[in-house]
Write a structure and sequence with these properties.
Elements: E1 2-18, E2 21-36, E3 41-58, E4 61-76, E5 85-102, E6 105-116, E7 120-134, E8 137-148, H1 152-156, E9 167-179, E10 184-201, E11 212-232, E12 235-248, E13 253-254, E14 261-271, E15 274-283, E16 286-287, E17 295-296, E18 299-311, E19 314-321, E20 340-347
Antiparallel strand pairs: 1-2, 2-3, 3-4, 4-5, 5-6, 6-7, 7-8, 8-9, 9-10, 10-11, 11-12, 12-13, 12-14, 14-15, 15-18, 16-17, 18-19, 19-20
Amino acid sequence: MARQTLRTAGLSWQGQWSADADTRLQLGESRNTYESQPSYYRTETTLRNFVLQQGQRVGAHHFSATLERREDALLNPATEFSDTLQGRRAQNALALGWRAEFGEHALQAHVRHDQDSEFGSQPTGSLAWGWQVLPAWRVMASAATSFRAPTLYQRFSEYGNATLVPESGRNVELALRWTDAHSSASATLYQNTLRNLITFGAAGPCASPFGCYVNVGRARYQGLTLAAETRLLGVAVHGSVDYHDPRNQDRDLLLARRARVLATLGADGQWAGWGWGIEAQGAGARFDDAANKQRMGGYGLVNLRAERNLAAGLTLEARLDNVADKAYETARTYGTAGRSAQLGLRWALR
């Protein structure tokens, strides 16, 4: 039997100093505990995030500067097979951004520098361009680089691999978007090429017989995303479908546990003072293993949500996920949550 507990807390503040200047501060912490019995195993990971962002508009130009710090902590108490393991890591980042519009054209540029306590420094950046060809039609293109360090859990938990290295990527996109007063539609072609993709693989480099985190030397995602939204009788309807090829280029096979087709369909509206929403999501067939031998079928889920304002800044929120209590797998023989309900209060200081 296994039990997983997730606790999260967050605090955000935003100050609008003038029509041209604003500041945002965000603090967050999450603590994830996983325990299994009768073969005792326990792991606890704690993540803390601190973000300070300043925005400034000068004429047609908007500039932003962001300071970010992320702290990871891992605690694995001793078991009959292993000693107590503790680890800590921090990552600091500085990001600078610029965007501006020049008639029918819009440009964006961002640079970011990460300093990781284990993996050193890594620069990344992005460029984007948009062109309003006609009043209802817009063409967009972008290119970006990415960097992702493995978490302490991915390196040192029961499923961890201490030899994992950071993942890096290059992404390009080309999109066409149509918009009118009530509807919009878009088509986006993309390609994301990755080095040392961090993913879950077969048993071997860790203590678990069920699999371990590994690096895939060369991976590539390329595909087409179609999306649309409109309003019908006061109800906002939206949907998307993604056709892509998630490929392990080292083996020229599909990446494990990645479906080639993903789709969503949803609706949002208001009724008797309540906001409501319904969403259906589906995933196609995929393979559980890197060798593409163990096929898993596709699945579909339906989720519901509702919210109501109780007072100024105070909102009651409710959510019901997997309404049909459908049994499905995202990983072979690994159970997923059935029907689940959430009820909460959200308070925003205004």
